[in-house]
């Protein structure tokens, strides 16, 4: 599973505090290292969601 650096100012699950998938946050760069195909658990919908999914219940990290 290849991880890439992604911006956090987008409404994607990987950048939401309600998503419990594997990711690494770099606060000095304001970037997230994550695989968009990674699946994690959404605490809003109580269901698995891909990191690349979008959501209107987005709550930004950082």
Number of helices: 0
Q: Which stretches are low in confidence, meaning pLDDT under 50 for 5 or more residues running? A: none
* Class based on secondary structure composition and strand pairing: mainly beta
Q: Order of strands in the sheet with the most strands?
A: 1-3-2
Counting DSSP E segments of at least 2 residues, the number of strands comes to 5
What is the helix fraction of residues, given as a range?
A: under 10%
- Beta percentage is 25-35%
Taken in chain order, the helices and strands follow as EEEEE
Q: Mean of the pLDDT scores?
A: 90
Principal-axis shape: globular
The total tally of domains equals 1
Q: Describe the largest sheet.
A: 3 strands, antiparallel
State the distance separating the first and last CA atoms.
25 Å
Rg is 10 Å
What does this structure look like?
With 62 residues, this protein is mainly β. Helix content is 0%, strand content 31%. It has strands at residues 4-7, 24-26, 31-34, 39-42, 47-50. The strands form two sheets. A three-stranded antiparallel β-sheet has the order 1-3-2, with no helix packed on it. Strands 4-5 form a two-stranded antiparallel sheet. The termini are far apart.
What's this model, at a glance?
With 62 residues, the protein is mainly β. The chain has strands at 4-7, 24-26, 31-34, 39-42, 47-50. It has no helices and 5 strands.
Provide keyphrases for this structure.
5 strands, three-stranded antiparallel β-sheet, 62 residues, globular
